[in-house]
Amino acid sequence: MITKHEQIIQHILTLEVGHKISVRQIAKKLNVSDGTAYRAIKEAENQGIVSTIERVGTIRIERKKKENFERLTFAEVINIIDGQVLGGREGLHKTLNKFVIGAMKLDAMMRYTEADSLLIVGNRIEAHELALNEGAAVLITGGFDTEDHIKDLADEKKLPIISTSYDTFTVAAMINRAIYDQLIKKEIVFVGDIYTPYDKSYYLYGKDKVKRWYELNEESKHTRYPVVNDKGSVVGMVTSKDIIEKNSEELIERVMSKNPLVVQAKTSLAYVAHMMVWEGIEVVPVVDKAYHLKGVVSRQDVLKALQQIQRQPQVGETIEDIVSNNLVASDKDEAVYYTEVTPQMTNQLGTLSNGVFTALITEASSRLLRHLKKGDLVVENLTVFFIKPVQIDSKLTIKPRLLEVGRIYAKIDAEVLNGKKVVGKGLIMAQLIDR
Hints:
- Residues 195-254, 256-314 form the CBS domain.
- Keywords: CBS domain.
- It comes from Virgibacillus profundi.
- By secondary structure, the protein is of the alpha+beta class.
- The chain has 4 domains: 1-63, Winged helix-like DNA-binding domain superfamily/Winged helix DNA-binding domain (Arc Repressor Mutant, subunit A), CATH 1.10.10.10; 65-187, 3-Layer(aba) Sandwich (Udp-n-acetylmuramoylalanyl-d-glutamate--2,6- Diaminopimelate Ligase, Chain: A, domain 1), CATH 3.40.1390; 191-311, Roll (CBS-domain); 319-433, Thiol Ester Dehydrase, Chain A, CATH 3.10.129.
- 36% of the residues lie in helices and 26% in strands.
- It has a 6-stranded antiparallel sheet, with helices on one face. A 5-stranded mixed sheet has the order 5-10-9-8-7, sandwiched between helices.
- The longest helix has 19 residues, at 168-186.
- The radius of gyration is 29 Å and the shape is extended.
- The N and C termini lie far apart (62 Å).
């Protein structure tokens, strides 16, 4: 018999993606207590079918497929950047495919802006409108608002328009970090990500007869099936070896192997693959804590998942990675480094972000210490002077200079030039770690 908890989960699954959910609404609709409704909604959140957003509420979202796990929904972006929804709430469940930093002219900006993307931009009303018309959501940095007709357009298009108090660089770094974290998590594959669910699995009841095994074998071409009792709990496994020379009218429960190997949804792919190889089995039942059959995982499922992992990217790129990759050492002087200011390095005004400026000085100083074989740098104190703003596409020269160095301590002065003009300076106090 289905429990109230399961009934609520099934009801939530029938709701449209984007539908707003409340404890009181569920309790009234299904005639359950508020406590039962609350616990079921939390379980639905754990299963990834609803998402709770501060100042917005709980909404039905589309459960993610594992292979798309590196993508975020706009609802998750709001939680990451502590944002506020200005319009287009019905689109919060949609998936973010990529984000674009709007630190360029409008025509150039629109070349990169496409449907299902996110435009990160400051207080540029025209850019907000153009992005929504292109099918992109909008994230306004610096705590700015937008005009009412833009909010109405967002509602009409069902595309979120979000505001955050963070600057563009910080927001981009936070989103990149979230994607990177999920890429790491994605590498850990569980049985729950790959198994064949109960309603699509082949299994036998203990009271079935041996001839039923032959019927399933003809239908599925499998030779190994889990055996369940009247309550749906796994009580055994039956294979071709068990039924050889047995009477077709014999009960399955009399020929099956008892106490079979089973796994749960949270069992890792590596563990179940190891089990299958060492035990020489092709199908393993997937059960819950009460031993109820949830589905099966086959050798084919495991092999397919292992092949999929090999095709997936194993690392993500953060803003710090972009800064590091763009920093090039001079051919003539190892203590001089060059970089070009790209759109990802700028703030909402189109100038070099303070955070990127700091990252450039730190990375150049770290490389200098490694070149001098002094060890790796751990910043203790950093003083930065921002002398002049740096425009997009500017070519910068970073010159770190070692002032003092000891066994575990270093002091470095760094100068940043745009052409021949000094645009900023930094003084780093750091500890050294032997490599």
